[in-house]
C-alpha cells in the first residue's frame, strides 16, 4: 500500500512539474541571436582560434571570387585599433533587392544565416564557405562591421552594429568601371571573445601564405598597422603547391631537386598533387579541399595513398628491385621521408561537421587516384635512378619498422593503470583519475628526489630523466624505441607509441616538463617537446602538455622571501628594498639546489606555480623551428641562432 501511495505521489509531482514546462519556456532565437548565444557552434570556440576564424571567413569570400575567375588579389590589414580590413577585387557583393527578404542582397548576406551565392550553383561552382554562414557570423560576433561595395562604376556602403543594420545601404560615390570588389572592416566583440581580441600576426601570416600556395597566381598581402612602421608582406606563388612542397622542405636534404607535380580533372573535380622525398624519416602529408585544410584527411587522402602504394610496388616488381616472391612494401614504409600536398576543388564537398576537418566525397578518392597514378608512374619510368632511391628508402623503412615493432612491445602494458608494470624510477601518484593526475618530468635525480619529497602524493607523479634524451628529429623509429629514457616515458604514460598511440589511455592529463632555468635545461626541454610533437601530438592537441617555470633567484631579507625570474627583475627588486637588513641573493643554477619545500612552493604548488601550456595553435611555427633546430642541416640553424641570439652579462663571471 505504501508503494502505491508513493507511485501516486510521484505521478502527481511529475504532472505538476510537467505543467511548468510549457510553450512559454521554449526560447526561439531570431536572426543572428543564436550565433551570439552559442558562438562555439559556428566558429568552434571563442578563444584565440575562434577569433582568427573570423578573418578566415571573410578571406574565404574573396578566395571564392578568385576560384570563380573574378578576383586576382586580396589585401588583409590589421588596423591600429586591432580591427581588421579585408579587400578583394572581385565582382563586389550584389546590391540589388533579394526577392525572398525584400532587402538588398549585401544586407541579406550579412544578416541571414545560410544566405549567399553558394547554394544554387549559379554564383560559385567551387566554394570553401560550404555552409553559407561566414559573413553573417562575423557580423553577429562584431561590435561594428562596415561593408563597402564597388561595382558597375558605383560605390556603396552599409554599416552594422552587433549584427544589426545601423546605416542602410546607400550609394556614396562613383568609381571607374575597372575598380570593383568588396571591402569588409570589422571589430571583434570583446564580450564574446573574452580571452583575447588581439590578432596574432604569425597565425595570420601562416594562413595567408598557405592560401597563396593553394591558389597559384593569386596575390595576397598582409599589413600590420599596429607596428611602429607598418610593413606589408606579399604572398604570390605562380608555382602553387609545387612551391609549397619546396617551402616545407627548405633546409632539408632531398632525394631529387624539383617536386613532382600532377594536375588533373575528373568529373568536375580539380586535382593537384605535389610531392618530394627527403633523406629524413618524417612524413608530411597535407590535404586540402576547396582551400580548407582537412586535418583528418578523408577520401582525397585515401585515393593518394592507394595510388602511391600501388604505383611504387608495381614499379619495384617490374624493375626487379623486389622479387616476385617478395611481399609488397607497406604504404607507411613508402611514405617515410615524403612531403606531399594534395589539393582538390570539389563542386559539392561533403565535410564531416562544421569544422570541416575530413572530406567525405567518395568521388574525390577516384579523382585523386586516377589523376596521380598515371603521371607518377610515368615519372618513375623516366627517372629510374630517383625511382630506385624511393623504393630502397621504403625497404630501409620496412626493416626499421620491424625492429621498432619488437622494441614497442616493451612499452605495452595490459592496462594503462597497472602499477606493477610501471618503471621503477617513476614515483607514481595514488589517484587513478587521469583528470587530476599530473606527471612531472624532472631533469636529474637530485631534483627528482626533492620533487618526490615535496609533491602532493595524491595527484602528482615524478619521473626523473637523466641527461639529454635522443633527438628524435634525426632518428629512425627503431633507434627511438631502443632509447631507455623514451621507453620509460611511454610506459609511464600508458598511451602506447607510434601506430599504437591512444591518447584516451593517458594516465595523466597534465604532463609537465620541469627542467633547470639554464641553457642545458632549455635544450632538454626542446628535445622533449620534439618527441611530444612528433610522436605524441594528440597530447599537445588535447592541451595536456605544460612547461613549468621555476625561478632563477631567491632574495631573502629578514623573514621576507621573494622569487624572481630574470636579471632585470632582480636588479629592479633589489633597488626597491631598504638597505637593512642586507638582502641575501641565491641564484639557482639548477632545480637540484632547491630543497623540497622551495620546489613545492615555487614550481609545484597549484596555488602558486606558473605553468605555460603548449598551445597547438602554433603547431606550424613549432614544426618549422623543430626542423631547423633539431634537423640535419647546419646552415639554417646557424642563421636562426645568429638572428635570435641575445647576449647578456653573466652575473656569475
The percent range for helix content is: 25-40%
Read across the widest sheet, the strand sequence of neighbours is 7-6-5-8-2-1-9-10
User: What is the CATH topology classification name of the largest domain?
Assistant: Heat Shock Protein 90
**Total of helices:** 21
Q: What ranges have pLDDT less than 50 throughout 5 or more consecutive residues?
A: 20-30, 413-420, 647-653
Q: Quote the average pLDDT.
A: 84
Structural class label:
alpha+beta
Spatial shape: globular
Topology, number of strands: 23
**CATH domain class name of the largest domain:** Alpha Beta
How many structural domains are formed by the residues?
4
Our estimate of the beta-strand percent is: 15-25%
Q: What is the radius of gyration computed over CA atoms, rounded to a whole number of angstroms?
A: 29 Å
Question: How would you name the CATH homologous superfamily of the largest domain?
Answer: Histidine kinase-like ATPase, C-terminal domain
| CATH architectural arrangement of the largest domain | 2-Layer Sandwich
Main pleated sheet: 8 strands, mixed
Distance between the termini: 90 Å
Any overview of this molecule?
With 653 residues, this protein is α+β, with helices and mostly antiparallel strands. It folds into four domains: 204 residues, 2-Layer Sandwich (Heat Shock Protein 90); 168 residues, Ribosomal Protein S5, domain 2 (2-Layer Sandwich); 187 residues, Rossmann fold (3-Layer(aba) Sandwich), CATH 3.40.50.670; 35 residues, no CATH class. 37% of the residues lie in helices and 21% in strands. The strands form five sheets. The protein has an eight-stranded mixed β-sheet with strand order 7-6-5-8-2-1-9-10. A five-stranded mixed β-sheet has the order 11-12-15-13-14, sandwiched between helices. Strand 20 and strand 21 form a beta hairpin. Helix 5 crosses helix 6 and helix 9 packs parallel to helix 11. The chain is globular. It is found in: Cytoplasm. Its cofactor is Mg(2+); Mn(2+); Ca(2+). It is an enzyme of class 5 (isomerase).
Amino acid at each position: 500500500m505504501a508503494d502505491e501511495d508513493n507511485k501516486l505521489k510521484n505521478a502527481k509531482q511529475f504532472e505538476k512539474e510537467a505543467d511548468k514546462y510549457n510553450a512559454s519556456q521554449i526560447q526561439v532565437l531570431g536572426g543572428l541571436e543564436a550565433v551570439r548565444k552559442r558562438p562555439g557552434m559556428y566558429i568552434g570556440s571563442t578563444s584565440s582560434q575562434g577569433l582568427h576564424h573570423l578573418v578566415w571567413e571573410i578571406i574565404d569570400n574573396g578566395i571564392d571570387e578568385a576560384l570563380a575567375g573574378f578576383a586576382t588579389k586580396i589585401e588583409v590589414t590589421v588596423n591600429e585599433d586591432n580591427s581588421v580590413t579585408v579587400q578583394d577585387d572581385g565582382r563586389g557583393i550584389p546590391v540589388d533587392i533579394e526577392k525572398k527578404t525584400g532587402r538588398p542582397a549585401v544586407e541579406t548576406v550579412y544578416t541571414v544565416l545560410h544566405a549567399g551565392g553558394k547554394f544554387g550553383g549559379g554564383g560559385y561552382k567551387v566554394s570553401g564557405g560550404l555552409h553559407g554562414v561566414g559573413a553573417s557570423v562575423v557580423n553577429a560576433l562584431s561590435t561594428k562591421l562596415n561593408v563597402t561595395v564597388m561595382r558597375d562604376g558605383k560605390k556603396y556602403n552599409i554599416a552594422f552594429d552587433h549584427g544589426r543594420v545601423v546605416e542602410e545601404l546607400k550609394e556614396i560615390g562613383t568609381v571607374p568601371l575597372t575598380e570593383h570588389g568588396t571591402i569588409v572592416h570589422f571589430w571583434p566583440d570583446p564580450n564574446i571573445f573574452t580571452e583575447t581580441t588581439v590578432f596574432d600576426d604569425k597565425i595570420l601570416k601562416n594562413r595567408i601564405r598557405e592560401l597563396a600556395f593553394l591558389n597559384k597566381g593569386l596575390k595576397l598581402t598582409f599589413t600590420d598597422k599596429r607596428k611602429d612602421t607598418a610593413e606589408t608582406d606579399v604572398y604570390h606563388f605562380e608555382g602553387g603547391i609545387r612551391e609549397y612542397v619546396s617551402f616545407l622542405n627548405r633546409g632539408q636534404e632531398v632525394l631529387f631537386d624539383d617536386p613532382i607535380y600532377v594536375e588533373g580533372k575528373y568529373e568536375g573535380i580539380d586535382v593537384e598533387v605535389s610531392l618530394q622525398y627527403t633523406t629524413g624519416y618524417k612524413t608530411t602529408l597535407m590535404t586540402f579541399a576547396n582551400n580548407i585544410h582537412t586535418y583528418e584527411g578523408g577520401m582525397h587522402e585515401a585515393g593518394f595513398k592507394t595510388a602511391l602504394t600501388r604505383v611504387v610496388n608495381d614499379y619495384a616488381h617490374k624493375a626487379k628491385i623486389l622479387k616476385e616472391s617478395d611481399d609488397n612494401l607497406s604504404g607507411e614504409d613508402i611514405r617515410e621521408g615524403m612531403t606531399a600536398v594534395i589539393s582538390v576543388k570539389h563542386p559539392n564537398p561533403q565535410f564531416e561537421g562544421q569544422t570541416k576537418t575530413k572530406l567525405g566525397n567518395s568521388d574525390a578518392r577516384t579523382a585523386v587516384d586516377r589523376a596521380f597514378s598515371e603521371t607518377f608512374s610515368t615519372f618513375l619510368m623516366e627517372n629510374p635512378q630517383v625511382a630506385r632511391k624511393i623504393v630502397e628508402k621504403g625497404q630501409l623503412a620496412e626493416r626499421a619498422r620491424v625492429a621498432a615493432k619488437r622494441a614497442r612491445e616493451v612499452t605495452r602494458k595490459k592496462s594503462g593503470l597497472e602499477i606493477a608494470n610501471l618503471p621503477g624510477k617513476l614515483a607514481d601518484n595514488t589517484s587513478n583519475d587521469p583528470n587530476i593526475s599530473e606527471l612531472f618530468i624532472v631533469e636529474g635525480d637530485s631534483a627528482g628526489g626533492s620533487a618526490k619529497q615535496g609533491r602532493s602524493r595524491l595527484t602528482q607523479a615524478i619521473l626523473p630523466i637523466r641527461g639529454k634524451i635522443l633527438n628524435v628529429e634525426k632518428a629512425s623509429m627503431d633507434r627511438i624505441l631502443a632509447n631507455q629514457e623514451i621507453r620509460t616515458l611511454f610506459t609511464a604514460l600508458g598511451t602506447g607509441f607510434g601506430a599504437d598511440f591512444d591518447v584516451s589511455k593517458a594516465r595523466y592529463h597534465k604532463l609537465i616538463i620541469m627542467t633547470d632555468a639554464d641553457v642545458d635545461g632549455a635544450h632538454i626541454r626542446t628535445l622533449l617537446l620534439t618527441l611530444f610533437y612528433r610522436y605524441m601530438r594528440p597530447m599537445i592537441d588535447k592541451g595536456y602538455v605544460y612547461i613549468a617555470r621555476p625561478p632563477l633567484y631567491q632574495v631573502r631579507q629578514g623573514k621576507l622571501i621573494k622569487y624572481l625570474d630574470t636579471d632585470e627583475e632582480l636588479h629592479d627588486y633589489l633597488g626597491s628594498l631598504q638597505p637593512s637588513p642586507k638582502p641575501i641573493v641565491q641564484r639557482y643554477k639548477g632545480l637540484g639546489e632547491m630543497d623540497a619545500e622551495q620546489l613545492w612552493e615555487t614550481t609545484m604548488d597549484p596555488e602558486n606555480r606558473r605553468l605555460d601550456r603548449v598551445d597547438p595553435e602554433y603547431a606550424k611555427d613549432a614544426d618549422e623551428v623543430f626542423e631547423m633546430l633539431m634537423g640535419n642541416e647546419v646552415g639554417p640553424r646557424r642563421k636562426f641562432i645568429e638572428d635570435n641570439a641575445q647576449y647578456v652579462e653573466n652575473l656569475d663571471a
